[in-house]
Amino acid sequence: MRLILFPIALLAGCVHTVDLARATRPYPVGRVQSSVEQMQVVQEDLAIRITNGTAVAYDNASLWVNRRFVKDNVTIPAGGTVTIQLADLRDQWGEQPYPRALFRARQPTTIVLAQLEAAPEQPLVGLVVVTPRVDALR
């Protein structure tokens, strides 16, 4: 039994989330956040779910997570829900957030801040992040 588990443990430790070809731009540090909208962000195992509780639709916006990871061309309809895969979020070095998984090499990334960038010249819009239970991330 141990001989079977050993190769599985090795493979689980070899998961690499860096892809330099998918590197993005750095977080816009000089930009301010103008407001927090009634849009809930819920972290799931391999994705985040965003529910827009407003009457405003966001088309081709950039979603920033934890002031590090970004996904461009995000469309969130008014009153709608979208799911963004964690693998689609990348930082300026091409790294993605670590998902919650059974065999993982690192502590999963907890989503604590989410913001939308509607246009490069506009302020960022904050989203309401619903933090999961602490034991759900273990």
Can you describe what's shown?
The structure is a single chain. By secondary structure, this protein is mostly beta strands. It has one domain. Helices cover 9% and strands 36% of the residues. The chain contains one helix and seven strands, in the order αβββββββ. Strands 4-3-6-7-1-2-5 form a seven-stranded mixed beta sheet, with no helix packed on it. The longest helix is centred in the first third of the chain and has 12 residues, at 2-13. It is globular, with a radius of gyration of 17 Å. The two termini are 25 Å apart. 21% of the residues are buried.
Defining traits:
138 residues, mainly beta, seven-stranded mixed β-sheet, 1 helix, 7 strands, 36% strand
How would you briefly describe this protein structure?
By secondary structure, the protein is mostly beta strands.
Give a topology summary.
Layout: H1 2-13, E1 33-43, E2 47-52, E3 58-65, E4 69-76, E5 81-85, E6 114-117, E7 124-130
Parallel strand pairs: 1-7
Antiparallel strand pairs: 1-2, 2-5, 3-4, 3-6, 6-7
